[in-house]
């Protein structure tokens, strides 16, 4: 099942119409790590495509808790929905790494949609793929325990960013307990408790802020609970 974020592969060449248009016609901007791209309430003036790096999309609850909606990589777009619906920004976009972004202004986007059916089809497909990914992700987490959700995140990270070592699979992707909690709508303390239980069971170990998975099969079983 396709899941949320983390591994980013460029679209096949036959499906990169918009990619070429963004690079040829868009404005290129370099964004430093941890810089805000836009915040809730901002005027929606541009649509963005990630040329390099990773962007985190998130929202905040009325209580001030952050909920991560997606991690976007090269070739993926964001910020189009509020432009199409003529709304202010509802989410926050943050550069999780140093990024290169390509921007199209609202007027340029409207002109392309009207004059270029191939671009319109590409944009619709990109939006549909992201919606399907989000629905699959929510469905996969709906009936899981907190520990099951944490196990699923670790399993996904190990599959997408794992490096085989003598002791197991090293997750070569920097992510904090708080970030994992934001992905699954739980607290940092709950995530830390799950890590402690997995360590006690011998499923994982941690070394220098990195996690090593020792038993992928058992971690997969934990992800089903």
Structural features:
25% strand; alpha+beta; four-stranded antiparallel sheet; elongated; 225 residues; Arc Repressor Mutant, subunit A
Model description:
There is one protein chain. This protein is α+β, with helices and mostly antiparallel strands and 225 residues long. The chain has two domains: 13-137, Jelly Rolls (Sandwich), CATH 2.60.120.10; 146-222, Orthogonal Bundle (Arc Repressor Mutant, subunit A). Helices cover 42% and strands 25% of the residues. It has helices spanning 17-25, 80-85, 106-115, 117-141, 146-161, 177-184, 188-200, 216-222, and strands at residues 27-31, 36-38, 46-52, 55-60, 66-72, 77-78, 92-95, 99-105, 162-165, 168-171, 204-207, 210-213. Strands 1-8-3-6 form a four-stranded antiparallel sheet. The chain has a four-stranded antiparallel sheet with strand order 2-7-4-5. Helix 5 crosses helix 7 and helix 6 (177-184) crosses helix 7. The radius of gyration is 19 Å and the shape is elongated. The two termini are 17 Å apart. The mean pLDDT is 89.
């Amino acid at each position: 099942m396709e899941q949320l974020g983390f591994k980013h592969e460029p679209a096949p060449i036959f499906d990169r119409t918009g990619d070429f248009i963004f690079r040829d016609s868009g404005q290129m901007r370099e964004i430093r790590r941890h810089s805000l791209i836009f915040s809730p309430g901002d005027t929606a003036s541009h649509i963005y495509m990630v040329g390099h790096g990773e962007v985190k999309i998130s929202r905040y609850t009325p209580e001030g808790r952050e909920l991560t909606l997606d991690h976007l990589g090269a070739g993926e777009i964001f910020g189009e929905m509020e432009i199409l619906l003529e709304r202010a920004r509802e989410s926050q976009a943050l550069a999780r790494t140093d990024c290169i972004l390509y921007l199209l202004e609202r007027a340029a986007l409207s002109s392309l949609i009207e004059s270029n059916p191939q671009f319109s089809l590409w944009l619709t497909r990109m939006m549909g793929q992201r919606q399907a990914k989000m629905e699959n992700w929510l469905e996969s987490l709906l009936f899981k325990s907190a520990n099951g959700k944490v196990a699923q995140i670790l399993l996904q990270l190990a599959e997408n960013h794992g490096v085989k070592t003598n002791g197991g699979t090293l997750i070569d992707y920097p992510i904090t307990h708080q970030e994992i909690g934001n992905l699954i709508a739980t607290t940092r303390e709950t995530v830390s408790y799950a890590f402690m239980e997995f360590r006690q069971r011998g499923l994982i170990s941690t070394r220098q802020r990195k996690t090593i998975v020792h038993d992928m099969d058992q971690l997969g079983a934990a992800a089903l609970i």
